[in-house]
Amino acid sequence: MDQEAPTNPDLVAPLLGVSEDDKSKIFDKGVSHLTVFQTPDRLFESLDYEIIENDLFKQDWRARKKEEVFLYIVTKWAFAFLTGFIIGAAALIINFSVENIAGAKWLVASSYMTSGRTMTAFAIFTALNTGLVFLGAAMTVYLAPSAAGSGVPESKAYLNGIDAPRILEPITMVIKLLGSICVVSAGLYLGKEGPLIHIGSCVAYFLGQGGSLRYHMNWRWLRVFKNDRDRRDLVTCGCAGGVAAAFRAPIGGVLFALEEVTSWWRSALLWRAFFTTAVVAVMLQLGKQFCAQGICGLFGEGGLIMFDISHAYGQFGLLDLFPVVILGVLGGILGSVFNKLNTRVTKCYIYWYLRKPPCVKVIHACLMAILTSACCFWLPFLVKCRPCPDLSDIPGYKCPTHGQTGNFKGFNCPAGQYNDLAGLFFATKDDAVRNLFSFKTYREYHYRSILVFFGVSFIFSLITYGIAVPSGLFIPLIINGASLGRLVGMIMTTTTGNKMDEGYFAVLGAAAFLGGTMRMTVSLCVILLELTNNMLMLPMIMLVLLIAKTVGDIFNSAIWEMYVKIKGYPILEAKPEPFMQQLTAKDAVTTSVVSLSPVEQVSTVLMVLRNTTHNAFPVIGESSTTGRKVFLGLVLRSHLLVLLKNKAFHYASSGSAENSKMLQFTDFAKPATGKSLKIEDIDLRPEEELEFINVRHITNGSPYTVLESASLAKAYTLFRDLGLRHLCVVPREPEEEPIIGVLTRHNFLHENLQNLFPYLMPKKQAAGKTILM
Amino acid sequence: MDQEAPTNPDLVAPLLGVSEDDKSKIFDKGVSHLTVFQTPDRLFESLDYEIIENDLFKQDWRARKKEEVFLYIVTKWAFAFLTGFIIGAAALIINFSVENIAGAKWLVASSYMTSGRTMTAFAIFTALNTGLVFLGAAMTVYLAPSAAGSGVPESKAYLNGIDAPRILEPITMVIKLLGSICVVSAGLYLGKEGPLIHIGSCVAYFLGQGGSLRYHMNWRWLRVFKNDRDRRDLVTCGCAGGVAAAFRAPIGGVLFALEEVTSWWRSALLWRAFFTTAVVAVMLQLGKQFCAQGICGLFGEGGLIMFDISHAYGQFGLLDLFPVVILGVLGGILGSVFNKLNTRVTKCYIYWYLRKPPCVKVIHACLMAILTSACCFWLPFLVKCRPCPDLSDIPGYKCPTHGQTGNFKGFNCPAGQYNDLAGLFFATKDDAVRNLFSFKTYREYHYRSILVFFGVSFIFSLITYGIAVPSGLFIPLIINGASLGRLVGMIMTTTTGNKMDEGYFAVLGAAAFLGGTMRMTVSLCVILLELTNNMLMLPMIMLVLLIAKTVGDIFNSAIWEMYVKIKGYPILEAKPEPFMQQLTAKDAVTTSVVSLSPVEQVSTVLMVLRNTTHNAFPVIGESSTTGRKVFLGLVLRSHLLVLLKNKAFHYASSGSAENSKMLQFTDFAKPATGKSLKIEDIDLRPEEELEFINVRHITNGSPYTVLESASLAKAYTLFRDLGLRHLCVVPREPEEEPIIGVLTRHNFLHENLQNLFPYLMPKKQAAGKTILM
Predict the structure, then answer these.
(1) Chain B environment of A282 (Cβ under 8 Å)
(2) GO terms for molecular function, please (chains A, B) (predicted)?
(3) For residues A160 and A267, what is the distance between their CA atoms, to the nearest angstrom?
(4) Of A497-506, B141-150, B230-239, B446-455, the least confident
(5) Is A707 in CB contact (< 8 Å) with chain B?
């Protein structure tokens, strides 16, 4: 009944294009690097967001003192603060390390270049990159395979109510952090943004559980967050904090969490998430000011991703709308192409990795590093050197530059000339974006150079994301979009005499490409504004995002949604699908009810727990007046196990209330994932099994119910909007049994309903579903 | 059962402190200027947000063509565009008119001042102001009394599901617009922001209804928005657009609607609201660029509220946190004091107005105009002239200035000197804010001047809001906060040597005061950032808002919430109150069920409709197998009336399905408020009353239900989160009647539950409720 498990090989395998032979491999060996396949033995469970209103809860609530309420609130806020603090620190560590490692790498390579020893420079450059990637990939593959990828789908799944424990464990967080540093320093076409979001979720998850038993880091006194609701709220804050740290965009972070990641939201949570991101922002600001004194090595000013173009031109006329529309449409089309190809490449990788030992993943990553290094190093040699332009009105203008950063790189050129492609390829990804966004650098790049850069970046961002290292998609997408935008801008300004700056076009291009892939609007817009610190660009960015999303939605769905599907997370969408109107709640009930009486013999309870996988059991009593069966409520498997473990038994079947005195509400607090009791933990003597157990006081007397005749669409709305785990279906007419079944996440999933009612999947469903709604 | 009416005099009167004698007066005569008292005869109804899944709906859905779905979506977006366009135009009209009228007024007064004719200047100044206010107040009082006040509580109430038709009518919108122009030009301590939000809601409401029958402006073909859900969404967009127009803050607008005004929200709506605000932003930008050519009279650049301080210093250290905390605490305390006093003054006004003819309200407003003019004119004479400082590093610095705007007003001072108080009092409110926010103008104001200004502004903003004109609170609050902040800044920079600019303190002070009164966080923060166009101030503004809200929440609730209470709107809060856990759903059922059979004689239906005020009736049939009564679903009063009006009758009680052929789903579309059928509209011949009516096909077969034993808290969550109008309570044990009652908004209201269960209102409830949650 509660076997919320779409990780059924038959359901997931076709998505991956896996043959019958390999199917068992995936799920038996768990050899893929993608998270879901890590836990083939563990079926996904749902989280308990509903308040279990049983007698103990009510007693506890009535007995709660003012000080306890206050302490609870203080703890909530303290955790939000701590989450922000740790995320801020993690972001500083990543940025500090990346800037120093990558900076040192560029300096060494450049110095060899300048002294004419090109081959040595290349060898050192490639060796350093490959070494870093080897480190990152090996850590990921052997220590925490779930640290691979961006982690956004994982955070999304958790906040939709899916309990997939491994993905938010502390080891994942640590490897994600270290691995990110390695691969970003190595200059792969990856970002640190997605991983930072995952790190944020992990931090919050870790704190919300009061530490981790597995790694002997738990503090009992911290266990005030006794329920999944509070943990969910904290993880939401963590996500927002992660985005805020990634882009130094506190408002964008909150909006990202709201628009993309969470499934439930409250106004009160808005406030706490905002607090977390504020803490992150303050941390980053202080860190930056601290390092501005020059004591952080090569960290300096530029470390935190921020493409400040606040001084730039922000006026626009009606005529400027034309290129913006073109960019939006281009972004939408190329974005959906990217989604399609990127997910296909990742699927191929998964399929390929399945047949090989883990070391293949490491070798693959290293090969990717060598390939990337070769392209970045040799491609600039293909273009001609260009004479330095006179741009003395730009503050700090220097041409050519030799070293870590700079717009006009000397590279292999003589004095007074620069290599335009080197400024893009032979630089960190952040610097490349900064160069593309640069204003007033009219005609800095040749058409051919920017076209080559766009093509190579597009291909590399397609083939890099799926390898077994922590990888974010934001920066590659921004690079693709910015080069596309700059290209369009160059064409526009030449042919139509448009007066908008090329840098402005680059920003709009980045917005278009992001919008075309991620299909977000408000949060992307705010993130871009916060990144560029220029409010006046707002209307144009909004417009381009709206167009790109609309165009993209015609072809396929957002990239995170596609990855959620690939990973097999049974996410419930916000709205029921139209065909559900034609089904009733009763139609979706697939398993028969296993119910308990208010007082049962221990042996019966044990048998029920051993022979079912249900996580909740209806309690059915007898009416004192009519003697008919009456539905009293639901009792959770986890609560029954607590009773059994504590041996709260009675000698007689009358079941007096004495055991309610023995156990408190807090004894039933939900432990952290993986720490919950299992039926195997129960060890009873034979005579104890003959005793009786009274479940009345732990029965949730107010479970949500629907009538059997209610449409499934309505039941879905109820289930999804209230974040339920169990929804009881009750008969419309009095019947023998007062309950017909219990619906869970499993029963509402598209795949399962499709199996049950294949004729109901209508063709027109697609039209009304996502586009433009 | 559906009499959602807390406008019960007994409930509202104590809030107003009205005596028994006057109580009848309020509700009989409807003489107050506040909206609720305008409609004493009309009880508040709830809106129908639930999808009525009856047979006709399902048939219609199955028959719906792709083109129809597409048309529907296009219309939705077209309406969102149109809403934004009209709001943008309205904002431009207001700003254009205010700048021209107020500008001309200041120019005339200044020219008389300069020529030494002070008394003439004062007379003309006062006469103009009073004339404008007379116009505004007279329009409001005699044409559209519901245009008084800000309109935020009204929008909030509508979006919570309360149907209060008058408040969003076209006439209200027109008077709000014209009245706003008058009173803002007259220089009262009022803003145009709240009214713009109300105007936004009105525009959306008007469009969503397909025009207005009452004013002969309706287009039948526009009636595609046939349900309250779509109308609600559009009004949400309208609200967001209004805020965006008020502050030229598109993102802030969306967030304001999300955080403060709406009760339900979807990710899809976020997108559409964002589109609306983008349209508004583009409109304003284009309007501004058009007027920058100098063809809009005195409009020029400054018309749209925007206090650009983008060039200002944004760094901060740990030590700067100290004055920020002080400001936050001060803002919280003074904000809650303001809330308390402001609502009390408004209550006094209401009480006073009750006993007087309407012209008293106009006279009162005019007196307020004279008083304000006198203060603004004469107070600057009390201070000494100060020598012009040397601030040549500020671009466009000029001292002293004589005319419309300017930081350093000459006023009554000789050349080379300026009057610091004149720059604040003898200027439009927007200019005063701009002057307070100005950077690098170190020591521009004397302590005494800023203290006098703060005191006078505080008192005027307290006593002005309640008068019978369209009035917004934002600008007065910003003025109070900015002067407070500047004062604190002056003390800080002198005593502690703090290096933050006084203008920076003024911005933080404005944030603190707004946070302390309105208790919003994210949206206020974004609005302030968009107003000041300086992203680097973000962390500090966030911090000060959090502190101010937290401190304010200790003392009382947010100002809009207090006004919602005063106006008696039966708003359902997001969370159930804790005592509801101790009640069951059955406890809250107050009225007995009036049910119908699937086929009823017309006379019976008529009798039921005439003798009850219920808006929905359970349909109870007989089981074909057992012959027991079975609950089939709910039928709405409005749908029954449609059947009766169209005479869809049968001759026999067998009730064959023929009438379902006669009427289509669209015939049951919900008409705009005030246009719905009433029982008085039904005119039947006696022989028709003997015929039969079949309600089966219009019965919503999937109404939401709760078991009688479910806790009221759970029922509340279900009712509120899903936006229901009716919630059926079904028995747990089979009983004679298959339904126990129907819960509506009325049954969940605090006041009603308090009357029923006075002993249950716990004292500790306050602690856990709002503070810091």
Answers:
(1) 539, 543
(2) transmembrane transporter activity; voltage-gated chloride channel activity
(3) 18
(4) A497-506
(5) yes
Chain B contact for A631 (CB, 8 A cutoff) = yes
Round to whole Å and give the CA distance between A231 and A208: 5
Min distance A282 CA to chain B CA atoms (Å): 6
Contacting residues of B for A549, CB less than 8 Å apart: 271
**pLDDT tens-digit profile of B196-224?**
999 999 999 888 876 555 554 445 545 45
Query: What tokens were used for A302?
Result: 């530029």
Q: List CB contacts (< 8 A) between A623 and chain B.
A: 733
Q: What is the pLDDT of residue B732?
A: 84
Nearest CA-CA partner of B122 in B374, B383, B471, B339: B374
CATH topology of domain A324-336+359-567: Clc chloride channel (1.10.3080)
What string of DSSP letters covers B279-346?
A: HHHHHHHHHHHHHTTTTSTT-TTTTS-----TTS-----GGGHHHHHHHHHHHHHHHHHHHHHHHHHH
Convert A328-359 to b/e letters by CB count within 10 Å (16 or more is b). Answer: bbbbbbbbbbbbeebbebbbebbbebbeeeee
* CATH of segment(s) A73-291: 1.10.3080.10
Instruction: Identify the architecture of domain B578-769 in CATH.
Output: Roll (3.10)
Average pLDDT over residues B378-382: 90
pLDDT of residue A225 exceeding 80, the answer is no
Nearest chain A Cα distance for residue B61, angstroms: 9
Residue B315 region by backbone torsions, left for phi larger than 0, else alpha for psi between -120 and 50, else beta: beta
Q: What is the rounded distance in angstroms from the CA atom of residue B518 to the CA atom of residue B515?
A: 5
Torsion of CA A358, A364, A367, A368, to 10 degrees: -130
A285 touching B, CB under 8 A? yes
Please tell me the pTM assigned to this model.
Answer: 0.86
Question: Is it the case that residue A64 has pLDDT exceeding 60?
Answer: yes
For A216, the 3-state DSSP assignment is coil
Q: Residue A108 above 50 pLDDT? A: yes
Give B330→chain A minimum CA distance, Å.
20
A278–B250 CB contact, under 8 Å? no
* pLDDT score, position B211: 56
- Looking at the structure, give the CATH architecture of the domain made up of residues B323-566: Orthogonal Bundle (1.10)
* Residue recorded with tokens 């990780």: A7
* Superfamily of domain covering B71-291: Clc chloride channel (1.10.3080.10)
Is B318 in the A-facing interface, judged by CB distances under 8 Å?
Answer: yes
Q: Which of A551, A557, A555 is nearest to A518 (CA)?
A: A557
Q: Is B396 left (phi over 0), alpha (psi -120 to 50) or beta?
A: left
CA distances from B540 to A271, A336, B530, B545, B552 (A): 15, 39, 15, 9, 18
What is the phi/psi pair of residue A584, to 5°?
-105, 165
Among residues 4-43 of chain B, which lie with CB inside 8 Å of chain A? none
Q: Where are the domains of chain A?
A: 73-291, 324-336+359-567, 578-769
Asked if the Cβ–Cβ distance from A539 to B250 is below 8 Å, we say yes
Closest by CA to B354, choosing from B33, B729, B710, is B33
* Alpha-carbon distances of A131 from A126, A136, A137, A194, rounded to whole Å: 8, 9, 10, 23
Residue B533 gets which letter from DSSP?
T
- Give me the sign of the Cα torsion angle B217, B218, B219, B224: positive
Is B312 in CB contact (< 8 Å) with chain A?
Answer: no
Confirm if B744 and B588 have CB atoms less than 8 A apart. no
Q: How far is CA A641 from CA A52, A606, A648, A680, in A?
A: 16, 9, 10, 10
- The string of DSSP codes covering A120-138 is HHHHHHHHHHHHHHHHHHH
- Tell me what percent of the residues of chain B surpass a pLDDT of 70: 84
- Domains B71-291 and B323-566 equal at CATH topology level: yes
Relative orientation angle of helices A429-437 and A502-518, to the nearest 10 degrees: 130
